[in-house]
Design brief:
The structure is a homotetramer. By secondary structure, chain A is an alpha/beta fold. The first copy, chain A, is about 30% helix and about 30% strand. Chain A has ten helices and 14 strands. The first copy, chain A, is elongated, with a radius of gyration of 23 Å. Chain A starts with 6 loop residues before the first strand and ends with a helix.
Chain lengths: ~300, ~300, ~300, ~300
């Protein structure tokens, strides 16, 4: 990644939570921002150089793409996560000016957003019919077309703010008020983000098929070096059911000796292990490091062994 | 679950891969089958007794619902998985009679299906525009309406077979020809499916927050009894980011002593552990059991300890 | 073991540290006490009913017998440890009346006691020659014979106190002033000592030869139930070098659910595992028990599994 | 250690099994051989330069010194094991010429040898009385003195062969005919013995007191790198009861990457870990090394991590 990317892509269209995530990146406001129609398209723009980095959802998203992102980044030409961003998930109900809640019969939004607002809809607009939208933003923008088959849309606050043609009929209509979701900024391999002391490292580890207990061996590489995991998911490789890889987030930066050592252990067990990046945690929470897994402990241990080997 | 459920629900609408999965259940053909608009709705019909069981996607689905299913079944009133079903994922391109491939400008389908057919579409209908559909079947059925804004749909073969008003323009257009996906049949708690010797047990384990290394402790409950895991996923609880539960598929049936013992271990570590069912594997592959984790070894060990405690 | 053993044996002769250990047993003062010439002889007296219990050294002894005890109790007819006793190791130098330190040329004691007083002897009686004794007490008593080939003996304070014919020339001459050693009281199998809350359980576990990683599996049975180990020793079985058994002391009583469960796990892995007893710790230090390994957690987990199995 | 030590010491006196072990060292026949009165004395001769190397018992010995050796080598100025030797344990009964078995009333030998010949003595010389000897050889040689208080001795065959004044009355009188015991040759730190492919590494690891589960952590350092253990013993440190160190023999040489890495892990957990040597196994049995713990796997993993750190 160049020091200052000038072209960003993101899971579009404009007005989604993903764009809201991108806007948290310091220089994104003044950069070129290109919406992509799906996660693969966004990542491919980075791979082929059309964009410097892509913002895509990685967890719990209202607009899908989570497992798609896990799978897309696990294969193909290597990419690197260089930042994570948290976005509060807050939904608004929008319609064209003059429309009242009582007038609403059909509502469009992304399927996941619909699922997260069902309780509110059932309580406030009983009997409302769902119309599929490819994203929350697309559903909202569709209202501005003359031929929309629905009366209202559920979308992110960002859309309503930017579109004078839409009226907000209700705010915070999500069933889980404190919901937050996580996005990642993905770039081509290059210089690693600097260690901040509150970092996260993401790897993809194919499960060796020829050895029972391989999963425990994989996780033990982290445990034995005191490295905590904050996410683990087994994913079928897609080749055939039964072959798996693991997508794992671990605390710490590969520049931390305990993380580097754990990754070396993973590589031995599963040589096709893929490093997806070390980057600052969005919540900036550093985890405590025991003395015996500190960089200093690793350095001292290495020196001790070297001295023995040299017969000193 | 009654011996013979008479009412099934499934993630609808009719014609989806989920209905194809349901049709593999022996008595489903003659039973009432009610499509549900989303996974939660399907599960709620089981919970409130409107249906005896629900078929929903659990892995790698083209129609989403995977993480939705994991989350929906992990909370709320308890449910039980009583069967798993594998369905080959094969896509067809359909249109109204008389439409040719060269005429197609806009294609509708579910977003996941679209992602899985992109290579074929790019190669064969370059420039085709995507129109979001709430499911593959809904996209196909929409073609029969007079006011569809698209010319073709991508859907499961089952739809085309049942709808004389649709023509199949191309078959097997998925980018991953051998794709298979997995569905589960969910019921209310009751008598367990009988042990077949090739079984799977699904549990949901909230991660205890107050103890470092808890994930390793959880997994060790399986490893120390020789129980293999075939799936593991960490999921945020939704309460706030950073709290997790694990959704785990383990080999074996709770009627196997090693599985029962592992589950007891999980319950001690995380008392809110939820048992989601023991059921026959769709692939009927039994895993070998070491002598020291056999039912006989557990029985002998239990007797040995009891004799000591009784001072014999 | 009868409620009140009336005949004790111990690693003799009279006047050793082992007899001092036996005297700590509440009813030993008034009971018959028979010295045995070696550990095997003492244990055999218990096995054949000639004695109700035997006191023998188990750790760090000045008079040997440690590995002999480990091996003797690991094989043959089953025995049970019913108590452990700690004895401070304090040495005195004794001689016949009239003999002064400057007169001493040759000193007798047990080889281990000699090793533990070498610094004092080198500093205070330089050039003194060592004469082997079969025990500290035998060396001291030998001075009373007319034909002793040595001038002084190193022994336990207990001997000097009981023998008017011996004079103490120096006290506390051991090189390690705070030394303490551990003894065990061994009986035939019978009712277990009651749980005190500060207990210890001893087992002998033959290492299964046919499975790599068996040692870790064995130790994991304790670790996974939160049971600490206070001693572990690998011992060759004596059949041929390379076959091992492990002698292990674990915190807790077999009446503690976590210990019973760990022992059942050992029995599965190594069916010839031998239970050597649960008994109160000599230091009465109880170890803290995590909530998830408490008896209550085991009971609740067992009930939970049973309810599932019964389809409730 | 110089390439060819010219002065050896051993646990004496001459004629013990330890000297028999020393005679197996290729150049020992022509070297100076100095008997030491105990293990500490032998090791101290090496430490102060009076000898180049010391042969001492390390396992299952008939003449004691095992735990003494473990403890003596664990503390004090650092020493290194450079070779291990196996010696078959075979006992003979010797007396002065003219003495017949029926004449024997009192027998002398080392206490451990006595324990190992008890069955034979009970069967063949019922009622024979035991006279303590400081070693088997000392007991035999004592017969040549005019004032011996016993009629016969149990000793190693080597003594009888070299002493024309002794007659062998019975051979192979040990109760365990296949007994073998193990000795080690100890030197000052210096160049390591070369890797043979069938090596053993010995370490002493103080148990960190401040962390529960430390023992499992220690053993896991070996297990996670596929390094088997052939011996483990917990030993009290002698400071006060309850503080322990572990004496461990592991398969492999510190020049093997998996062993070096495991030792580095030990050093981190317990910085006072002491390396006692890597040396060829007496039985020359090499253990198989899994691909993922080979030197090549370690090298490849290290390079992979380095490339990532350098942003390649």
């Amino acid at each position: 990644m160049p020091a200052t990317p000038v072209t960003y892509t993101f899971l579009g269209p404009e007005g989604t939570f993903t764009e809201a995530a991108l806007m948290q990146v310091p220089d994104a406001g003044g950069a070129t921002r290109i919406p992509a129609s799906n996660v693969n398209a966004a990542l491919d723009m980075v791979r082929d150089g059309s964009a410097d980095a892509a913002m895509v959802p990685i967890e719990n998203s209202v607009e899908g793409g989570v497992t798609a992102t896990l799978d897309a980044i696990a294969g193909g030409q290597e990419l690197r996560i260089i930042r994570e961003v948290l976005v509060p998930i807050s939904f608004v109900l929008v319609a064209r000016p003059g429309v009242r809640i009582d007038d609403i019969r059909r509502i469009s939004t992304h399927g996941h957003a619909w699922a997260q607002c069902r309780l509110w809809v059932d309580a406030n607009i009983p009997g409302a019919e769902y119309v599929a939208g490819s994203s929350t933003a697309a559903a909202a923008m569709g209202l501005l077309d003359g031929d929309a088959h629905y009366d209202a849309a559920i979308c992110a606050p960002i859309v309503a703010q930017e579109q004078p043609g839409l009226t907000v009929l209700a705010e915070n209509i999500g069933d889980n008020p404190g919901a937050v979701t996580r996005f990642i900024l993905v770039s081509r391999p290059g210089a690693l983000p600097e260690r901040t002391g509150a970092d996260k490292t993401t790897v993809v580890v194919p499960l060796p098929e020829d050895r029972p207990g391989a999963l425990m061996e994989i996780l033990d590489q982290f445990a034995t070096r005191g490295v905590n995991l904050s996410r683990i998911e087994s994913r079928p490789t897609g080749q055939y059911l039964g072959h798996y890889f693991f997508s794992i987030d671990a605390d710490g930066h590969i520049a931390d000796a305990r993380v580097a050592d754990a990754l070396a252990g993973l590589h031995r067990i599963s040589p096709a292990t893929r490093f997806l990046g070390s980057y600052g945690r969005a919540d900036a929470q550093s985890s405590s490091v025991a003395q015996h897994t500190s960089d200093e402990a690793f350095r001292a241990a290495h020196e001790w062994v070297e001295q023995i080997l040299q017969g000193e």
